[in-house]
Amino acid sequence: MFTAIVSAEVKLPNVIGSDMVLQRDLPVPIWGWADKGEEVTVSFAGQSKTTKANGEGMWMVKLSALKANSKPATLTIKGSNEIKLENILVGEVWICSGQSNMEWSIRSSMNAKEEIAASDHPGIRLFNVPGHKTHPKPQQRLAIPTEWKVCKPDTSANFSAVGYYFGRRLHKELGVPVGLVGSNWGGTRIEPWTTLAGFESVSELSKEAEKVKSYKKDTKVGGGSPSAIYNQMVHPLAPFAMRGGIWYQGESNGGEHMSYYHKKHALVNGWRKVFQNKNLAFYWVQLANFQNPGTNPAGGDGWAKIREAQTKALDIPHTGMAVAIDLADAHNPRDIHPRNKQDVGGRLAQWALHQTYGKKDLVPTGPLYKSHKVKDNMIHLSFDHVGKGLMVGKKTKLEPTAEVKGGKLEHFSIAGEDKKWVWADAAIEGDTVVVSSKEVKKPVAVRYGFTMNPANANLYNKDGIPALPFRTDDW
């Protein structure tokens, strides 16, 4: 009798609970478990939806699109028992995921004491997936129970710094509640976060798909196994309605080139499918400057090529990329965890505000190489996202980027048909950059910041965002 009573109770996934934020302007799935055939009614904001649990004891309703609301409300689920979820807001919801640079907490970041003390934001809600867990099959429940928290000093300190600064800017500029879902694991590759359907959507990743399809319930998987982290740390969150995701990962795939481009497509395709949102916005961070400054004009070392793959993946609709090559500590270039997470979160939010929320007065990113023309012994470069104009800039910690009047552009290199690279002279002319060298009479290609640590790269737009590293060749 006890077992029958317990199984008959309506139960909910962890991600549906008091203090949560529900996504505005989209259908909102509310789901859970009950006894087979049990009738369940969900009531919220004047809506009431009724369904029955299926043969496996699962049920789901979808609330019609809700308007943003900062006034706390109650959501009621009623079956054989009644559950009342309190203090619920309606606004924008984002998942914040990746490896250690996304997991990195406010507590461990720049100006931590002041930032934590100032984090009293009742309109921001935090949901952090605890532990580092894997499973060979997609799971319905998180391995460790957790709950939503109202953002305040005693709840924010251990949350993702990048996620928090991203959400704080959205909350301030949109004027609506923001819900942030953190699911991270330091040192992980992209493959364990990717769904089977995601792998299957990219022909170049058929081997990964076949491996995931071979898993049995008792297959031993770990933090490096394809789909294994997704199965236990993301799947239980789906299909919670969200506007998008932010992603800071790539260091553990840092030796790759275009294979990472294919994997980024698979990740985004898979998450869009499971969250039932084909337009799910997705913004990632390009890897920051790391290790000793690059001194070879040819570049191509370290993370140069994975950054190129990250840039190429911008061909996925409704995506964007925050540049971070100027944010590592110049005095400690071997720190893989730049402490300045404020600018990372802010630059991700810049993309979202421009593209997802239609604030077209904001330039989404720094200058992005568009095309070039060879004229005489010079190469003229054109860019997208010039914004208010091009400048030589200098970024110092959390200070706004300063224009260096009369400054010289650095970290441009140039080559002729012999493919021998030399450092180049570069100058801003209007919205273009003109590159040349006395050593190259007939130039054919340019590279900019194309190295592990382009420490001297200093081309910015006047909105204060650095240009993306690039090369015009495919050598």
Task: Summarize this entry quickly.
The chain is of the alpha+beta class and 475 residues long. 20% of the residues lie in helices and 28% in strands.
List strands and helices in order, with pairings.
Layout: H1 2-8, E1 21-23, E2 28-33, E3 39-44, E4 47-52, E5 58-63, E6 69-78, E7 82-98, H2 100-103, H3 112-117, E8 121-128, E9 149-151, H4 153-156, H5 161-174, E10 178-184, H6 196-200, H7 206-213, H8 228-233, E11 244-248, H9 258-274, E12 281-285, H10 304-312, E13 319-322, H11 341-356, E14 368-375, E15 378-384, E16 390-394, E17 402-403, E18 412-415, E19 422-423, E20 425-429, E21 432-436, E22 445-448, E23 459-461, E24 470-471
Explained architecture:
The protein is of the alpha+beta class. 20% of the residues lie in helices and 28% in strands. It has helices at 2-8, 100-103, 112-117, 153-156, 161-174, 196-200, 206-213, 228-233, 258-274, 304-312, 341-356; strands at 21-23, 28-33, 39-44, 47-52, 58-63, 69-78, 82-98, 121-128, 149-151, 178-184, 244-248, 281-285, 319-322, 368-375, 378-384, 390-394, 402-403, 412-415, 422-423, 425-429, 432-436, 445-448, 459-461, 470-471. Strands 1, 3, 4, 6, 7, 8, 9, 10, 11, 12 and 13 form an 11-stranded mixed beta sheet that branches. A 4-stranded antiparallel beta sheet has the order 14-15-21-20, with no helix packed on it. Helix 5 packs across helix 11 and helix 9 crosses helix 10 (304-312).
